[in-house]
Amino acid sequence: MSMKTALRAVRGLVVGAAVVLAPTAMAAGRAPTPKECAAHPTNPVVKGGCIVIDRKTGNCMACHVIAGTKMDGNIGPRLTNLRARFPNKAALYAQVYDAAINNPYTAMPPFGKDHILTKAQIREVVDFLWTL
């Protein structure tokens, strides 16, 4: 393989990786914008972020401070550094599904138990939250 061919191959891999990773980068560490959500994302991280900011589904920013949102709630904790607060995604999923399991006095709605969100939606929300 010539040097020119090898460089083309590497360039192709870099461009391909950028295209594949771009949807995740949009929501990683911050909530997606309404414009990003209006584009009907297919990436689970971005979809989860869109659920979080949607007033009809998650509406998480009504109670939590979330990077990238303009409306900051003050009822729940800041949604930052969740990997340090939860040992794994399963624990975070359980928290979103029914926070009363860990705290019977919580103000957080049981999104899964009360069928506010589907299990698939909760998985997407957890995928997004895991980036914060």
Write a concise keyword list for the protein shown above.
mainly alpha; single chain; Cytochrome Bc1 Complex, Chain D, domain 2; about 130 residues; 6 helices
Structural commentary:
It is a single chain. It is built from 6 helices and no strands. The protein is mostly helical. It has a single domain, classed as Cytochrome Bc1 Complex, Chain D, domain 2 (Orthogonal Bundle).
Structural class: mainly alpha
CATH class placement: Mainly Alpha
Could you say how many structural domains there are in total?
A: 1
Q: What would CATH call the homologous superfamily? A: Cytochrome c-like domain
Number of strands: 0
- Helix fraction, binned, reads 40-55%
- Separate helix tally: 6
Largest sheet: none
Uncertain regions spanning at least 5 consecutive residues: 13-25
Taking Cα atoms only, what radius of gyration do you get, to the nearest Å?
18 Å
CATH architectural category: Orthogonal Bundle
Q: How much is the average pLDDT?
A: 84
Shape label: globular
As a percent range, the share of strand residues is under 5%
CATH third-tier fold name:
Cytochrome Bc1 Complex, Chain D, domain 2
